[in-house]
Amino acid sequence: MANCSIRAIWILNNQDTVVFSRRFSVVERRWRLACKRENENSNGDNNQISQLLPNDSEFTTAFIERKKREGSSRGFGFRVVQSSKGSDSWVDDPITRHIISLHINKEEEEGEKYFIWPLVLHIRNPYCILILPLVEPRHLKSYERMCNRSDCGSCIGEEKSLPSLLLDLPCITGSFMVAHTIGDVITGDSVEPEVLASVAPSVGGLLDSLTGSIGIPSMTARAKPVAAPVAVPNSSGGISGGATSDTSKISSRLADRDALCTFISSAMPFGLYFLLWYSSSQNILTCILNSRDFLTDRSLNVGTPLDLNYSNISAVKVNGFSSTDTPPVDMKQPAWKPYLYRGKQRILFTIHETVYASMYDRDDIPDSISVSGQVNCRAELEGLPDVSLPLNGLSTSHLEVLSFHPCAQISEHGVDKQAMMFSPPVGNFILIRYQGFCGLGPPVKGFYQLSMVSEDEGAFLFKLRLMEGYKSPITMEYCTLTMPFPRRKIISFDGNPSIGTISTTEHSVEWKIVTIGRGISGKSIEATFPGTIKFAPKTIQKLSALSRPAHGLITEDDSDEESENINNIANIEDFLLEKMNKDLPPVDLEEPFCWQSYNFARVSFKISGATMSGMSIDPKSVTVYPTVKAPVEFTTQVSSGDYILWNTLGKCPFVATAPREQLQQQQK
């Protein structure tokens, strides 16, 4: 993320109040110099770029005004009747729901306005996190022209389109990473990437004490993650392992402002402020100064995200450093490796893949299936070694997108081969992220039909085939299918599946096709499930839902306000939620696609033994320099994401794609 510098960060609560903000003065100095040069070269252009940043009060006012103008915090995302020139929705691009602009009214000088963009918006309830990266003034002018042009939308391949502009701004990707990490920190959802190995005694060492031991792998044991032990300082100043933690989540709340400030100051250091923060311990400060470019040469780019690993930053704050953590004099210690590992050496790779699918079983709508994956790594290596490995079979792995950890360098490119080298961080980390297609075909395919024979009674049929074309050692460990009916209460159910067991609740039917401990491998199975279902009458449901005391429900006393909300487009999302809450308690809003005739079934499964994309790592091809004896272990794990079977007999949402010939003509 060397090309990403952050100008400012704001965090707002659900009352649209700024609860935290941070401005990077060094980055602002660079922005002011760039604006000065741009304004001097504008040749009398009246459209001067403002060098200012809003204070918290001005920012809040502008954010509330945009929320009213655009209908919600995110906005419409496309041009509607209510859109006005200069607004984000006027650009007519859905990305404006995530990358927004604000029109700032200067409080000190009445009538003076200026424009800030691009603000990356990440909503992590109940907070809105906004990141303003540093861009060139010409980029700001380009977007401002888009907000005022008369035509609507962007054509594919158009040079002056918003997608083309964003492709020229790598800081947008970095800002999204910063926003998501801050969201994890303030909500306590920061979790280390999972690396799998078999359960065995700990190998010890400082790294185990900080991030937890996974254990020595064995040939017979099944791969399992092991909880991380809590790091406890010992009397000698080192770190030793203590009791195991009940959860891998790192607890943090926005109320702990010092913790958030510490994270931001460490991940995007302020230069001298960063050193002074550590000066509370003379030993720590000495260690940093002696480690020779502890944060690498990029520390000169104040406000540049260096290390977004909250585990590393927390460990540094709690445990500090010792003299044994100082690297050799002729080597630089990168930001992502604040500690040096000592102990038995090994390297663990785990590929996690998530399969997403929309199965329609229709001639007019093609099925859609995709894979999102990541290569997690844990390199327990002494010193600061380099690890290299080839990524073979990329053309046959059906990969579309590849991104790498900042520690990685891609040295060799080819049609079917990429060689990469990396200096591994401390603990578990994500080495590669990718997206692609399922090269082996869908692990679960078939159809779902639900026909309502009356308003309250329906007949359904499932016909599925599992693991067709999959060979051993690929194993489906479990498979479960769920039919959710959040808007209807089930009062009776009758059905007999050909395999598995059935359980029901008031609002769902669950079919356990393959249970844990009885996985299938080396064969495919066919499963059918016919049945009938009966729901409570809608009128009774509505009365019972209104009678339940649930937060957000609207009663008859609120009916006078409903017509007012309809006419107030600024409350469009709040109004929709209110309309939904008339019949549903808030917990049922987790299934938004079950409105009207949008019926579906969700499949959940877990597969081990291989990846769906074909991505793989050969442990024998992994090399370490300087050469050490370090065994390499490779494991895989595949799970389902939103794997949906849409009702063949009902309505269903889908994305219409233009023919390939039409796309090629537009690109020309």
Index terms:
alpha+beta; Immunoglobulin-like; 668 residues; 29% strand; 14 helices; five-stranded antiparallel sheet; ten-stranded mixed sheet
From the spread of the alpha carbons, the general shape counts as globular
Helix content: 10-25%
Classification by helices and strands: alpha+beta
Which sheet architecture does the biggest sheet show?
Answer: 10 strands, mixed
Calculate the terminal CA-CA distance, rounded to whole Å: 33 Å
Number of separate helices: 14
Poorly predicted ranges: 199-253, 271-301, 545-571, 579-597
Q: Name the beta content range.
A: 25-35%
**Overall average residue pLDDT:** 74
Say how many strands there are: 25
Could you tell me the radius of gyration in angstroms? Answer: 28 Å
GO biological process, one term: endosomal transport
Family: Belongs to the adaptor complexes medium subunit family.
Subcellular location: Endomembrane system
Domain MHD: 344-608
Notes on the structure:
The structure is a single chain. The protein is 22% helix and 29% strand. The strands form five sheets. Strands 8, 9, 11, 14, 17, 19, 20, 21, 23 and 25 form a ten-stranded mixed sheet that branches. The chain has a five-stranded antiparallel sheet with strand order 2-1-5-4-3. With 668 residues, the chain is of the alpha+beta class. It is globular. Among the domains are: 182 residues, no CATH class; 131 residues, Immunoglobulin-like, CATH 2.60.40; 105 residues, Immunoglobulin-like. About 20% of the residues have low confidence. The relative contact order is 0.10. α7 packs across α10. It has 14 helices and 25 strands. A hairpin with a 3-residue loop joins β12 and β13.
